[in-house]
Specification:
The structure is a homodimer. With about 675 residues, the first copy, chain A, is an alpha+beta fold. Chain A is built from 17 helices and 30 strands. Chain A has five domains: about 110 residues, Roll (Ubiquitin-like (UB roll)); about 80 residues, Ubiquitin-like (UB roll) (Roll), CATH 3.10.20.880; about 130 residues, Nucleotidyltransferase, domain 5 (2-Layer Sandwich), CATH 3.30.420.480; about 160 residues, no CATH class; about 120 residues, no CATH class. The first copy, chain A, has a six-stranded mixed beta sheet with strand order 15-14-13-16-18-17, sandwiched between helices. Chain A has a six-stranded mixed beta sheet with strand order 29-28-19-20-21-30, with helices on both faces. In chain A, a hairpin with an 8-residue loop joins strand 11 and strand 12. The longest helix of chain A has 25 residues. Chain A is elongated and about 95 Å long. Chains A and B meet through helix 3 and helix 4 of A and helix 3 and helix 4 of B. Chains A, B: It comes from Actibacterium atlanticum. Chains A, B: It holds the Pfam family Raco_middle. Chains A, B: This is 2Fe-2S ferredoxin-type domain-containing protein.
Chain lengths: ~675, ~675
């Protein structure tokens, strides 16, 4: 047996098998199902199948590998080595043939299904398995005696050489086909899209000869306020460029409900908003491609996450049904279409767009993406995932069950409707501490790493000035005021007399806390007013009530851990969030930030087609809780108005941040609830 | 048993079964697989399920039907009868319930799979089975507690109420969905396209409430010279309007090769020609819809047949590869797309277009359609099908094997390149007889039923005049000249002396035959020149050589029958065609005309989706013979120059039209062959 075949062992997979002497390594890998890449299909020109043979004794594998276990480099390998350079020890898997027992390592860059490590330490890595791949084929030339179309011969080549059956060729590619085949002398590289569904694979692009790529995909998070796009290499998943712009729909309304109202009140208003967001997306695509120096023709896929209203406006659906019970979506399923269907003229006409499914009329594809990214359905312990934005999406669950709802927090958490509030931009206060003894604040502004009481702060912020307070700043400010005893549990700001600091000044019938006053120098006066406190209370009550509603539904009074998601979530300190009672009490080290989890979900769906099947199944399994029609939501909302809460105990919080027992209520202020809006 | 169930017998199918008393007739029909229509799904509003119960003794079926074997008309039926009228004896199948043994006739108009009788007596009827059907569904209203999209609930309704699984809803219909569902109060009628492939069914249109249709389809024959469209009712297949226009591509070249040359010599020339034909198609669609008073929104399907060059120019493919060996098609498979893909803005955006498959680079979808219509593959005897146009498509075969080729006859058969030739239009001579004794002609012109020697002819033709000679006229003229001894077998026209008639007059070194001379009155002088004879000889030689080549390939010297197809084929008399040697010798009563068989094939593919599968399989099975590279074609071509033929005997022709043995060759005329062109 040793005379005619040999044992081939692949690492790291450990797959092994006996093959006749003379078998190319690539062939052996394919037959064993080893994950070894190849674009050219074994023609020795793409070099994607590089492997690293090992020689010597391998007691672990029970083999000894002789020096001549692989064939010597042949002419093809030498030529490749001279032209492009092979790393020492590396061989082309399609050229090197087995001559004896051998151990062959497949380096990560030669694997199709690479692992993409995510930033968050506890996050699952993304396994690369993009829907679109590059394959080179040799197409039979036409034969008058056996006439078939060039398209049919290309399809046959894809089937026999790559196992891609019945590849659909869109009309515009058919029109270009003959020229490309002849230019490539019947060798062409095809970008074939083969997704997670039963649909036939689809040709997305065709290049004459060998085209090595890479192909790119775009993961887009269409938020009410900002649109963020990540351009990813579909080969290894790395983000080559990211860019964000304001959602131009803001001119039609700051929050979602005001945009729905705009559509209701203005015939054609939905179409206007659709055009606006699509135009912005085209600008964004162009910007991100320019930044990454990528030819847009190589961007062949895109994924989109968004809340239901953005989802409808992106797809060109009138959102008015989302403005009223029963909040019926046009479609809750994932939508798979071409870039032109979405008006994305900046992408190639054949590029694909995949819009993730929605969970419900108020819980959109963004929440589905968060679920995909944070995977509560795979969690052993009970996890609460809160995606804080203009609207908050909340997930609660574990392996047994996952619940979801959305809660109308409004834009206060983003610094809107706050007297000194502003968007996160240089000059905005983003961190704040109040000395509990002196009641004096110190803060940091965006664009400067120094605290306000450190040397050089004034100089460093001279250009930007200190202009206002952003979303994370206002949360810290309110929480610090509560911890410093400037604010009582009901949310009342004390007077200078009650608090012992002149920074608490009268403001009509209530008080405000002065953080910074540069009016003598012509600068800004930045305060936290009683109105600001009320706005934050409304927002956090909505958030907490949503979470509490899910906990009721789940039948629990506490959760094992909390994940803060959303671009904004990354900036909230868990302690401050808990002091405000934004989230239920939990050990602080069990409260983590997932960053832009929705965007990560979009990226996962871009890089791994199985993840699309997963999220499509997941949204069906998630139990939706509709806050708008749930009477208990209102009860929870009222109870959550206090800081941190009127009735729920916060034992874990008490361990790390005992809150002063103060009360400033002298009957002078109306503490009643205000009207709140979804948005 | 008789107490609880009853025997239900349906005619004409003869299907029978026992059903519990109280079973609606429609339910019984469905369970037995009886072909009984319904759009509303049994709601008693569409009336498509009308049936005719019979009462009394039926010894043939072994039952006696009591008067009360069906329930009395219920309120729904009475209401329908009052509002719309039910024919006497008719019942609504969904309302009438079985109360005893019953015999129920399903009248033709209540059958889905109606038979459409074709004009030609020996043609198979078309069985209606259009890809698109109307179905009414009741969609569940949205429920906040179980949120799904309106689209998903529509899909569920289509699946549960009609067995239509996973219906795809295109984006523009998604955008309209919510409005239509609410307008129809959750009852809507869907046009669902479910073709012969594995592809998921597809929503083409949606109407609120009950929409009774009908839906229409367009069968289009895109010829080099003319484009013809038939608008068909997809319910019963009848042609509601037909219209034809000139192919505007004529301005880029009369024949196919000159259009290919135009594309070769003019960058963008192919796109110009594509725009031209698409524009013309839009005009044609509009015209035919106006003529039939049909809302274009109801035209949901279309089928197209055309030769390969037209096929490419219609689909937007550059045809230059078709101008040179190996004549590679972009695609030979059928192409299924949307109307906008073909630039058909006159059709609804979701309307489907199905372009039949091509057989080879010279044998197009028109020939495939002829094969579908004339079905040589289903013929017991050996049939030669000749589709005569600017290019001739020829099929030869029987159940065992079918061969196909095309032959470059040129436009002579259509009256082009003929000295007095003109297109078929009022004033054109279309029929002609020559008295063998007097050598005097009599003729008929288009627009007048009288012969030229009949009383009133001059008056009847005063308006149009006698302006020229059309395709069928020139064939009759040449054949009559041969039969009258004015033309010898080599094709030479005799002199006045040789023929004994002054109508044979000198024309340079040759002669011409004067049919009509109105020059004294300022009218036309219509003659057949020696050059005309040569043009006809070239055309008919090409046609015969193609047929003969197929016969060689088949290994036969004669065929059992000949079918003349093509719009022009309908006007050629078999005897005259055989005198010219256009077709092989055969008993004259075995030579029939199939009319526009390509157009009929398009209509069959429109009305019956299984026919699409059939033609797609058929084109793969047909053996293609490429005349351009076959040396024997040239030999056959030369031998076929004589009238009827230099060597092949025409015994059947001799029985009915013995040809005078004359010879006018005095060595004065060059009888050499001329250059011929494909086209």
């Amino acid at each position: 047996m040793a005379d005619t075949d040999a044992l081939v062992i692949f690492t790291p997979s450990g797959r092994r098998g006996r093959f006749p002497l003379g078998t190319p390594v690539l062939t052996a890998a394919r037959q064993l199902g080893v994950d070894l890449d190849s674009v050219c299909g074994g023609r020795g020109i793409c070099s994607k199948c590089q492997v690293q043979p090992s020689f010597g004794a391998f007691p672990k594998h029970g083999v000894t590998v002789a020096e001549d276990a692989l064939s010597d480099k042949n002419a093809v390998e030498h030529r490749y080595d001279e032209k492009r350079g092979l790393k020492p020890g590396r061989r082309l898997g399609c050229q090197a043939v087995v001559q004896g027992d051998i151990v062959i390592d497949v380096p990560p860059e030669s694997q199709v299904h690479k692992q993409v490590v995510r930033k968050a330490a506890d996050a699952r890595p993304i396994t690369m398995d993009a829907a679109t791949r590059l394959v080179m084929v040799e197409v039979e030339e036409p034969d008058m005696h056996n006439p078939t179309g060039d398209a049919e011969r290309l399809q046959a080549a894809l089937a026999t050489q790559w196992g891609l059956q019945n590849v659909t060729i869109p009309l515009p590619l058919l029109a270009d086909l003959q020229g490309i085949l002849r230019k490539g002398k019947w060798q062409v590289t095809a970008a074939v899209y083969d997704d997670h569904t039963d649909a036939a694979p689809r040709l997305l692009a065709l290049w004459p000869g060998l085209f090595e790529g890479p192909l790119y995909g775009l993961a887009v998070d269409v938020g009410s306020t900002t649109i963020a796009a990540h351009l990813c290499d579909l080969n290894d998943g790395h983000v080559v460029a990211s860019s964000g712009i304001m959602n131009p729909q803001i001119r039609f309304g700051e929050d979602l409900m005001s945009r729905v109202s705009y559509a209701m009140l203005n015939p054609g208003g939905d179409a206007e908003m659709t055009s606006a967001v699509r135009e912005a997306l085209n600008d964004l695509v162009t910007a991100v491609a320019v930044e990454a120096k990528v030819d847009p023709a190589q961007i062949v896929e895109s994924t989109f996450v968004c809340n239901p209203v953005m989802h409808h406006l992106l797809l060109g659906f009138d959102p008015i049904e989302l403005g009223q019970a029963p909040f019926a979506l046009v479609t809750s399923d994932a939508v798979s279409l071409t870039a032109p269907d979405l008006g994305l003229s900046a992408l190639p006409a054949q590029a694909r767009a995949y819009v993730l499914p929605c969970i419900a009329g108020h819980v959109g594809a963004d929440a589905a993406a968060v679920a995909l990214s944070e995977a509560p359905h795979k969690s052993d312990d009970l996890v609460l995932v809160v995606d804080v934005g203009t609207n908050a999406e909340i997930l609660l669950g574990n392996k047994a069950r996952v619940l979801a709802c959305s809660s109308p927090t409004g834009p206060a958490f983003e610094g809107a409707q706050i007297s000194s509030g502003q968007r996160a931009a240089p000059g905005a206060i983003e961190r704040l501490e109040i000395n509990p003894d002196t009641k004096e604040p110190r803060f940091r502004v965006i664009g400067c790493d120094l605290w306000s009481d450190e040397d050089g702060f004034d100089l460093a912020t001279a250009t930007t000035g200190i202009t206002g307070i952003c979303g994370s700043g206002i949360i810290e400010a309110v929480a610090e005021m509560r911890m410093a005893g400037l604010l009582d549990p009901s949310g009342l700001i004390g007077s200078a007399e009650q608090t012992g600091t002149q920074r608490c000044q009268p403001d009509g019938r209530t008080h405000e806390y002065v953080i910074h006053d540069a009016t003598p120098e012509g600068g800004a006066r930045i305060t936290v007013t009683q109105g600001d406190i009320r706005a934050i209370q409304l927002a956090k009550s909505a958030l907490y009530a949503g979470a509490r509603l899910l906990m009721d539904e789940f039948g629990v009074d506490s959760v094992d851990r909390v994940v803060l998601a959303g671009a904004f979530g990354a900036h909230i300190s868990p302690k401050h969030a808990m002091v405000l009672g934004m989230i239920p009490d939990a050990p602080l080290d069990h409260v983590t930030s997932a960053g832009n989890a929705a965007g990560t979900g979009a990226r996962i769906a871009l890089c791994n087609r199985a993840a699309r099947a997963e999220v499509e199944q997941l949204v069906r399994q998630i139990d939706k809780v509709e806050t708008a029609i749930e009477p208990r939501f209102q009860e929870h909302f009222v109870a959550a108005n206090a800081l941190p809460h009127a009735t729920d105990p916060f034992p874990e919080l008490a361990k790390v941040a005992p809150l002063p027992q103060v009360s400033f209520n002298t009957g002078g202020e109306n503490t009643g609830r205000r009207r709140r809006r979804r948005g």
